[in-house]
Amino acid sequence: MDSHTYPKGTANSVNRYRNRATYDAPTIHALVNSTPVLHVSFVPDLTTPVPAILPMIGKMGLYPPNASLDNDAESCYLHGYVSSRLMKLATTSHSPDGDPGLPVCVAATKVDGLVLSLTPNSHSYNYRSAVLFGVATLVEDVDEKLWAMELITNAVVPERWKNTRVPPDGAEMQSTRILKVRVTGASGKVREGGPNDERKDMKREEVLDSVWTGVVPRWEVLGKPVASSYNRVEKVPEYLGTFVQEENERREMEAKDAAVKVAPQRKSKKTEED
Fold first, then answer.
1. What is the residue range of the signal peptide feature (predicted)?
2. Which candidate, 23, 19, 24, 13, places its Cα nearest to that of 196?
3. What is the model's pTM?
4. Which of 110, 134, 167 is closest to 60 using CA atoms?
5. What pLDDT is stored for residue 188 in this prediction?
6. How far is CA 272 from CA 24, 34, 100, 226, in A?
7. Is the C-alpha dihedral spanning 254, 255, 257, 258 positive or negative?
8. Which of 135, 249, 253, 256 could form a disulfide with 95 if both were Cys (CB 3.0 to 4.6 A apart)?
9. What DSSP element (H or E) covers 191?
10. 9 within domain boundaries
């Protein structure tokens, strides 16, 4: 995984709650890779007054796999359908610097807990979020396309690609498109720990005695695999059962760990936004 830090720029600099910001590439990439649905925004054309936002499946990756991270940064690969508007725009658009490709923004968010404070105004989430800014181009090279399809498939369930009917046939290759987002900037934000109330409320004994405060850890749970109506494999494959168990354990641990971390002391509104 890339070990660099994204430089701050106009697009990716975090202004509010700067103490929660991160520009560390491994942290940001890990969040993108663990988020099942990414939200990709773009401007369809100059006549459209609002941007479009699409839910997509994607994963960070470096191609070729043996490339040196000293010279190349990971890109975000996105899976889509041949006739989608986004795929068509990526082949005809240009970035502000004139290079081929469609400027896009990719967002990922995980909620780890419900933070309950003394007053509604101080309620919050424990969360991890990341935003990538970059230029999307269509992957035309067949080898890279197949590699990216395997990468994205295994991002859903590890080892799934080799445990299916592969490689894709001609019709499947024609109908599937892969976008490669060259990341030009990125940032993340992380909120951990318990509630952080205003000093005025912390001095009110009657409030402290009557309002429960704390964190409700929150995580997504993968259920027991349910066989299809035409499934002929008697037992759930080991790779799948292991993934479900280990993934549930990891998610629970992350949410509970975030709940007990020490939250930064509350600052004035001006200081938080500066």
1. none
2. 19
3. 0.90
4. 134
5. 97
6. 21, 28, 39, 47
7. positive
8. 135
9. strand 176-191
10. no
CA 237 to chain centre: 27
Determine the number of helices (DSSP H) and then strands (DSSP E) in the chain: 8, 8
Count of the separate structural domains present in the chain: 1
Q: Whole-angstrom Cα distance, residue 120 to residue 142?
A: 53
pLDDT digits (tens, 9 = 90+) for 163-203: 999 999 999 999 999 999 999 999 999 999 999 999 999 99
Residue tagged 């030009």 (tokens): 184
Encoded tokens for 140 = 């035309």
What stretch of H or E contains 130? strand 124-138
- What CA–CA distance (Å, rounded) separates 78 from 145? 11
* Residues contacting residue 261 through CB under 8 Å, at least 6 positions apart: 192, 193
Question: 245: burial class by Cβ within 10 Å (0-12, 13-18, 19+)?
Answer: exposed
- Structural domain contains residue 3: no
CATH number at residue 82: 2.30.110.10
Look at residue 227 and tell me if it is in a domain.
Answer: yes
Spatial CA neighbour of 81 closest among 214, 177, 198, 196: 177
Burial of 13-24, coded b for 16+ CB within 10 Å and e otherwise, reads ebeeeeebbbbb
Q: Does 5 fall in a domain?
A: no
Residue 251: φ, ψ to 5°:
-65, -40
For residue 49, give its domain range. 18-267
Which residue shows structure tokens 């060259």? 182
Is the pLDDT assigned to residue 66 strictly greater than 90? Answer: no
